[in-house]
Structure formats: C-alpha cells, structure tokens
Amino acid sequence: MQIEKDAVVSIDYTLKDEDGRVIDSSEGGEPLAYLHGGGNIIPGLEKELEGKAAGDELQVAIPAEEGYGQRNEQLVQEVAREQFGQIDELVPGMQFQVQSEAGPLVVTVTDVGEEKVVIDGNHPLAGIDLHFGVTVREVREATDEEKEHGHAHGPDSHQE
Ligand SMILES: [Zn+2]
Questions:
Q1: Which one of 4, 98, 103, 154 has the minimum C-beta count within 10 Å?
Q2: How far is the CA of 142 from the centre of ligand 1 (A)?
Q3: How far away, in angstroms, is 55 Cα from ligand 1 center?
Q4: Residue ranges in 3-159 assigned as alpha helix (H)
C-alpha cells in the first residue's frame, strides 16, 4: 500500500546537517515506526513520504521552518550559577527540564561562567536545514488501537 493517512510506516533514515555531518540515524537499530498523518514526525518529512511505498528510497532537504522551526533568541537566557548549585560539574551540552510559562521546557546549557550560566530553550535542531536519506521498509494499515492512541505500536504491541 501507499503511504497515506493512518498508515503505520517503518523507515530507515539518516539525518545530516548542511555540511554532511550525521546528526541522527536508525542504522544499527530498529527502523523508526510512526503513524502517518498523526504529526508524530516533522511536517516536512511527513509531506515528502506521502504516496511512497515499501522499498522507495528518497533524499530530501527540509528547511528549518518545516523541521524543528527557527531559533527563538528569547529562549536563550543567562541565569545565576547558584541556581545549579547542587551540580558539581556543570558543562555545556547538559540538558535540564525547567518550568516555563508555557509548561515544561528542555533547556541546554551552552556556556558556563563562574557566576553566570547561559541556557538555551530552543530545540537543538532548531534553525538547521535537515537532509534526510530515507528508505521505506514497511507500510501497513494502523490498528484501531493505534488510530485511537494517535501513534504506532511496536511489533510486540500492547504498549501504552
Ligand atoms: Zn498506544
């Protein structure tokens, strides 16, 4: 069958940035299974996969707006180092969940000074144009349960 709304699609993928650096890949693991049309993967990739079938391979470039969005510099903040007082070794790259006005937000530490720490609430892939190499492995109809839950279930199924 072709990929359409309410298909469960398994893909192998490699995600690279503009410079060809691999950001993420399913290689060496299980293919990624998702429910098509459920907003479970980034919109740009979902659009490119529409109408494809098992065995199809595609190379797609997805601009940041259709990926993880543009960066919002207001989400970059300087906070007092003492707010992380309980953490001995604070280094750039560490991630924390914080409460924001819009609910829980994952922030990444980007700079650590003696008194100030810079945290960034943008998705690490925000503002990055994404280059996907995708192979469609399997396309099947979603079960009623999957449609109800709005996501795909794994091969051995009764999760969540
Ligand atoms: Zn479920």
A1: 103
A2: 11
A3: 26
A4: 43-49, 144-149
138 alpha carbon – ligand 1 mean position (Å): 19
Q: 76-132 pLDDT, tens per residue?
A: 999 999 988 888 899 999 999 988 787 888 999 999 999 999 999 999 899 999 999
CA 157 – ligand 1 centroid, Å: 9
Rounded to the nearest angstrom, the distance between the alpha carbon of 125 and the centre of ligand 1 is: 26
How many Å apart are CA 10 and CA 122, to the nearest integer? 28
> Is the pTM value of this prediction over 0.85?
no
How far, in Å, is the centroid of ligand 1 from the Cα of 145? 7
- State phi, psi for 147 to the nearest 5 degrees: -60, -40
What value, to the nearest 5°, has the Cα angle with vertex 38 and ends 31 and 73?
90
- Asked if the model's pLDDT at residue 157 lies above 70, the reply is no
Pair of tokens at residue 17: 């940035």
Instruction: Give the distance (Å) from ligand 1 centre to CA of residue 132.
Output: 27
Distance CA 2, CA 142 (A): 13
How many Cα atoms within 13 Å fall on the side-chain side of residue 20? 0
